## 1
Amino acid sequence: MTRSRASLPDLTGRTVVVTGTTSGLGLALSGALAGAGARVLMTVRDAERGAAAVERAQAATDGSGSTEAVLLDLADLTSVRAAALDIRERTEDRVDVLVNNAAVSLGPHARTLDGFELQIGTNHLGPAALTWLLMPALRAAGDPDRPSRVVTTSSLAHRAGRLDLTDLHWERRRYSPTRAYGASKLANLLFAAKLDRRLRLTGDPVLSVAAHPGLTTSDLLSNALARGSTWGARLLVFPDRYLSQPVAAGIAPQLLAAFGSVHGGDYLGPTGPLEIRGQAGSARRSAAAQDPVLAGELWQATSAATGVTPDPDGDRDQGPTAACSPP
């Protein structure tokens, strides 16, 4: 299974939502997808930076696709609900692919506006809530011959991740930025797997697929350093700088997950040594990432924390306003 930007199919008429698009993987993804003809809704936290990112992504097209900004802060559930409503209204409740790409990493202990530990809140809780709130639009756009897709972006760091659902926000334990990041990326894989199982049970025309970019040059570590990361996180700068692949190669697993020949539940990444770089193909999960009991417990804990009813567990007849109303 391989796919490059050049081999993307014609995406004219397809609508894709990509989170975290002002730089790095998200910006490259947006340009590649719009360049293949898709309408790309690029989520951004800042309107000014978002406008610049949209302009850069649009410049990568030949005019066949389009890009537009959607304000979204995954560290603020009010913003998540507002963005979901905005997206559903703009797209008339039809989204072909959602790529949960945005992430933060390795900064000092901080909290979201809702009081969550910043990494689990931004990397898992916010994207999970967004996915559930957009499920009616994904369901409406899919059909058995061409299902819609949710692409969840994880990381090699998930293999060192451990989830303590009794202390998800590091209130009792001594905080470790690297362990917290690994836990959030493990949560991504558990969520993607649980979503796949739920979709199979309901028979909805939506696939849940996960991907990771290997070691890819991005702004994650530089942003962490700007926030004042620990020495342990600073030690990761060397492999990130000297062993990583360019962003144009790093987006290949996400593109494959979004529009390649895959199955629900697949996990994709680089196939080179240690999955650091190389062509996109099947990736390995840790044992913890394959634990269905833990995935189920996380699913329920996520709903309780966010106040969002899981979908496909919830009421499918909710309109856009009802689905996005605060708990």
Note: Strands lie at 15-18, 39-44, 66-71, 97-100, 148-153, 206-211, 267-270, 280-282.
## 2
Amino acid sequence: MTVVYALAMPDEIFQPWLKRWGLTPTGPSFTTLLGSRLMPVVRDGAPAMLKIAAHEEERNGARLMAWYAGQGAARVLAIEHEALLLERLTGTRSLADMARSGKDDEATRILCEAAAGLHAARSEPPPPTLVPIDRWFRALEPAAAQHGGTFAKSAAAARHLLGTPRDVVVLHGDFHHDNVLDGGARGWLAIDPKGVFGERGFEFANLFRNPSAEIALTPGRMRRQARIVAEHAKLDPARLMQWILAYAGLGAAWSISSGHDPTSGLAIAELAAAELAEA
């Protein structure tokens, strides 16, 4: 899930849904970075998570969660307007912890398997609210024009990739270690999608910025993980590296626009550019 702050929030917003869906709270509510409210609950003895979306992006993500129908993702138990009730994944394992404790390769393989479940064909058409991935990359061009350098390299890679799309699928859009959780007997399952569509290779670019900048910038890590992803996800290695370059630059552009430090994103983009230059 997107990083959350464990804050005590007024719970009145949950009351209609607790009553409507027969839910019992089991812990304090909290909020996401986008302002959505969440509360752990129980329904009919089973753990669940009640989410009240405060942003259109998260409402669109909820529709995509419903479309996944529990294949590769947490099950949607109920959805109506801004409210979403999800199965609560209570497994104790963490892919981020695995990556930090010497099991980075294993975590990456698990993520590739989880992505395959999300990208599998469905019989139902996807939600009409999906956003084309090229719309996201529009934010990169002003940064390239203003700052040049690494941003220009990332923008050039993005223009090439977006102009020659391959294997277009429904994308989670924020696929990384903290958004794939331990579902116990059901395996590793995704949460918190953004709801976009575009080339399948894009989905994996975010793995190379996670679970932390420190790990992402470890010498040799990008090359090793890229080999694993290319093999297990059946991707062109050079094109995967181009996606890493493009998305790291986009992330750095977003950081600037939101008043945050783009240094780590630019460093990851430069690593990808160097890998491409050596190929």
Note: Residues 1-9 have pLDDT under 50 and may be disordered.
## 3
Amino acid sequence: MSAKLGLSSPQVSTVRFFVATVLMLGLFRAWPGTLRTANRRLLAARGIFGGLAALLYFAALALIPAGQATLLNNTFPVVAVALSFLALGERPSWQLLLALALASAGVFLVLGGGQAHFSLGWGQLAGIASAFFGAAAITCVRALRADHNAPTVFFAFSLGGLAVSAPFSLGPWTAAPLAWLAALGAALVAFAAQLFMTEAYGALTVAEAAVWQQLTPMAGYLWALALLGERLSPLGAVGVVLGAAGVVYASVPVPRRRERPA
């Protein structure tokens, strides 16, 4: 999509992170004391991992079909659950694992149409790598949210993404207004989405958030239906239902057994 508009994948990523960095600097200037950098190493890791994940996802979008790139990238919640267990000791319940499996199956049916066939080319490798870097970034976010606010963590992501993307954006830039309008619109939407997501990780475990994040590709697919006139296949409809069922099941409280007095 970026190539059709005249901007390369690194250029789209650079615009996104530049806009986010400028907006965050404005926020810190308006509310002094908001920026808190207690753990700079972990903040740097969050920025670098997140920046690499975004850059590789854009690269996959430029090389393979959007549905396949999104499907590969969206395996990051599953990887993040395993990483959070190893690094943070977060043990997901069986209810959350089943809900994540349902939601992930729904994503596969929606984006893959039940007929996803993968060859292992550069685009597929970029999509897989983006998922692993994204999982590492999310694990860093969860660890940081214990003593860092969401704006600080998101600012680290913006700086890291800009540092990773800018060196690959040194070629000629288009002057087409439509390309810039699309890139700026995507940057503003991504800014809001990432800030809300970072805030959510202060209250949700990685496994809990992973289930909810599986709504992202399904929501994107529904937007495509509404705005681009794409048709919903029968398997896609089943996928939407499965994804919604997974999220609802994860939200149902599990009754706890009462402990008998000694």
Note: The radius of gyration is 19 Å.
## 4
Amino acid sequence: MMQQNTNKIQLNIHKNRAALGNAAAKAVAATIQHLLNHKNEVNMVFAAAPSQNEFLAALIKEYIDWGRVNAFHMDEYIGLEDDSSATFAHYLKTHLFNHVQCKSVHYIQGNTGNVQAECARYSGLLQQHPIDIVCMGIGENSHIAFNDPPVADFKDSATAKVVLLDADCRQQQVNDGCFPTLDDVPTHALTLTVPALLLCQYIFCMVPGERKAKAVYHTFNSPVTEQYPSTALRTHGNVQMFVDVDSAGML
């Protein structure tokens, strides 16, 4: 493992996805314990994507007082049935919440007739539970959550909003095996905004795989701009990024 500080992001390079996941899980578990030494509860946001598989598999094996954790997720497709295996809620249940007993779990409801009301509801929950830790990835187009380059706004006044997914983002869902074809991928989603994500105390970013190498490169080397949404992480000051040799290949 190689560690360095680059543009306010602590970069951790690991030999493979498993090593990346184990290291990230230990770092997150230690941070949860640190926070629980000083407060009664910890509020966390989790991403739902195959890039998080190894991290979440390792996290559920760590000793964590989950009964003092309030959990949220950061984005959800609009229009999928609640029981669809393609929803991010289903992913998080399968990989995390069916294995641990959090104090509370709050899902974004994508299958609703009033998406603006859902944005308001979820924003209210996050105001009641200011986020301590965000566990996230980066998209192939450098998106964070579903803030793709065309819709990312580093000064967004909203906490949650409706977004149109760009073609690169939708193609990634096919590349990841989440949908059989591009036509099957929903065109819209609900997402936490970039400022909402950056309000937390700690960000842990897990980004394995060769297809993410270009996005990792832009995160560290391109101007801080909505063209590359992940560059906003350089403005936070307390971000740990975990990559493998494949995703670090262009650094």
Note: The two ends are 15 Å apart (CA to CA).
